[in-house]
């Protein structure tokens, strides 16, 4: 079980790659807009302004064109006009049979997305003591008698000493059932949230935007780094969301029976963004899921979704907001309103 010395560097690398992923998804959004209305002058001007804003945008645009071609889609008309020379763009795709295309598309898409997806996973793999894969769950019993139920594609780092018990949720979601030990508090860190308990049961979910804590039994204290607030006490049925950027805490209540419902194959969410739910569904889906439409991604939802059928859950999630799920290959889904 590892210490905590290298976590700051790992967190910074993960944040950098999250930004690269978001920029790539913005580029895909522009491609979808151009495909929907290739002759609109406003779309053309908006794309030019976005490309001129940063070199990272132009790099993402070239990668998006490559991914679009790799997925078997014909690039939108005029796509080769942006960015202007001397920056190169992908050549129009050659027609080929569906069967011959499948393997090539998978390899090409993997190459395009490797940089933005592989580095965070590698950092988590290096730090984690326990982890799960896509669609996999696992119950871990710690040496103090506490149990941790790991959701799909989740990871924790554990440090147990005579002075204290510390667990960091590196990715995903976990349900903790903590053995009481009055001499050694049990601390869970996730993003910029910190939960301190003696003996209790609670659920912690981590994504790019926030950390959510739901208390099933006992009493815990929760704080957010950088928010300037004192520790907030939670009672059973309380839910606290710690903003990933500011550390600010918002509170709500949830039915006790819905806390940790993912252990039975159900995902309950309360007033969270579509982006946040997609990130949770991604842990149960073997295909990459992109939400290039930023407006759709920011819509807030409350609902119950079936993790045993992530494609159906994804469609149910975005349909009320005019969203569609495009299965562009067995290896990728793109969610947008276009």
Automatic annotation (TrEMBL):
Domain FecR protein, chain residue ranges per copy: 129-220
Any one GO molecular function term: sigma factor antagonist activity
Pfam families named among the record's database cross-references: DUF4880, FecR
All residue ranges annotated as the FecR N-terminal domain in the record: 25-64
Keyword Membrane: yes
UniProt entry tagged with the keyword Metal-binding: no
Transmembrane segments: 100-126
Top-level taxon of origin: Bacteria
InterPro entries reported in the protein's UniProt record: FecR, FecR_N, Ferrdict_sens_TM
Protein name: FecR family protein
């Amino acid at each position: 079980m590892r210490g905590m010395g290298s976590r700051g560097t790992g967190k910074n690398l993960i944040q950098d790659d999250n930004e690269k992923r978001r920029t790539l998804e913005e580029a895909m959004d522009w491609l979808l807009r151009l495909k929907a209305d290739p002759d609109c002058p406003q779309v053309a001007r908006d794309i030019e302004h976005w490309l001129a804003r940063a070199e990272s945008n132009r790099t993402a645009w070239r990668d998006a064109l490559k991914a679009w071609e790799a997925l078997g889609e014909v690039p939108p008309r005029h796509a080769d006009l942006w960015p202007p020379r001397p920056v190169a763009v992908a050549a129009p795709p050659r027609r080929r049979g569906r069967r011959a295309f499948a393997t090539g598309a998978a390899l090409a898409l993997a190459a395009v997305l490797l940089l933005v997806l592989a580095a965070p996973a590698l950092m988590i793999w290096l730090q984690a003591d326990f982890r799960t894969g896509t669609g996999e769950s696992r119950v871990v019993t710690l040496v103090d008698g506490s149990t941790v139920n790991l959701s799909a594609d989740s990871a924790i780092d554990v440090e147990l000493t005579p002075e204290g018990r510390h667990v960091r949720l590196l990715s995903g979601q976990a349900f903790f059932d903590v053995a009481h030990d009055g001499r050694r508090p049990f601390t869970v860190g996730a993003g910029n949230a910190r939960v301190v308990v003696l003996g209790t049961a609670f659920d912690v979910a981590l994504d790019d935007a926030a950390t959510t804590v739901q208390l099933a039994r006992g009493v815990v204290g929760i704080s957010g780094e950088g928010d300037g607030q004192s520790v907030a006490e939670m009672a059973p049925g309380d839910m606290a969301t710690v903003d990933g950027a500011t550390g600010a805490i918002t509170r709500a209540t949830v039915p006790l029976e819905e806390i940790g419902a993912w252990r039975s194959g159900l995902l309950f969410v309360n007033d969270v963004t579509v982006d946040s739910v997609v990130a949770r569904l991604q842990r149960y889906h073997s295909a990459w899921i992109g939400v290039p439409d930023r407006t759709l991604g920011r819509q807030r939802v409350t609902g119950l979704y079936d993790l045993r059928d992530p494609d159906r859950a994804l469609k149910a999630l975005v349909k009320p907001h005019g969203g569609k799920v495009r299965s562009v290959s067995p290896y990728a889904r793109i969610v947008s309103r276009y």
